[in-house]
Amino acid sequence: MNSKEAIQEAIEDSPKRNFTQTVEIAINFKDIDLSDQENKIKLDVILPNGLGKEKKICAIGTDELKAKVDVPKFISEDELEDMEQDEAKKLAKEYDAFISEPSLMALVGKKMGQALGPRGKMPQPVPPAADAEPILNKLKRRVQVRTKGDDMPVVHAPVGTEEMTADDLTENTEAVVSSVKEDLPHKEKNIKSVYVKTTMGPTKEITEY
């Protein structure tokens, strides 16, 4: 099946739930040594059609940045200075992405680095003269694609929700697969299989990618 056919089957065969399910893909690898740091997958992919749901973004900065952005959470420099590790960990779990004024990045690293770093959530810097909206829009469409450990030759990534059109989900899926393929040492020869599923539904294999 191609991507669109597999996505349509995955959604059609998925039992209806009382929440909107995420559509996600899994890419399995072969003939690749993940103990070699150069072979590890660590990508940020911008989905052409977004995730189909809002990301919660937290901003860190002065009143200058606060005046530019409309986000659910804003942390001032004083609040950052007083932040404890427990609060940083709570924020790291609650929010999907972070932005910050460049002048505060060192302080963010000191106060929140241990919580944000391992989750791949270190803030995107917003230069003082920059328009913040394009940066926010890009963050909202970004998904992280990562291999974990040396013995798990697979990556997982959300590509949208079951309420999105098959065409939009297909474009998103192909964007992720294409990015991963280009990052592999032997391109498509390192891909063993690709599957798509909803949160609670059965997997469907994509055989044409």
Q: Can you describe this structure?
A:
- This protein has 209 residues and is of the alpha/beta class.
- The chain has 2 domains: 3-51 and 141-206, Ribosomal protein L1/L10, rRNA-binding domain (Ribulose 1,5 Bisphosphate Carboxylase/Oxygenase, 2-Layer Sandwich), CATH 3.30.190.20; 57-139, Ribosomal protein L1/L10, domain II (Rossmann fold).
- The chain is built from 7 helices and 10 strands.
- The protein has a 4-stranded antiparallel sheet, with helices on one face. The protein has a 4-stranded parallel sheet with strand order 4-3-5-6. Strands 2-7 form a two-stranded antiparallel sheet.
- β5, α5 (105-116) and β6 (124-125) form a beta-alpha-beta unit.
- α1 (3-12) packs across α7 and α4 (85-94) crosses α5 (105-116).
- The chain starts with a helix and ends with a strand.
- The mean pLDDT is 95.
The succession of helices and strands, N to C, reads HEEEHEHHEHEHEEHEE
Report how far the terminal alpha carbons are from each other.
9 Å
SS-based structural class?
A: alpha/beta
Reported by name, the CATH topology of the largest domain is Ribulose 1,5 Bisphosphate Carboxylase/Oxygenase
**Fraction of residues in helices?**
25-40%
Radius of gyration, in angstroms, nearest whole number: 19 Å
CATH class of the largest domain: Alpha Beta
Strand order of the largest sheet: 8-1-9-10
Which regions contain 5 or more consecutive residues with pLDDT less than 50? none
Number of helices: 7
CATH homologous superfamily of the largest domain? Ribosomal protein L1/L10, rRNA-binding domain
- Given the C-alpha coordinates, what overall shape results? globular
Annotated CATH architecture of the largest domain:
2-Layer Sandwich
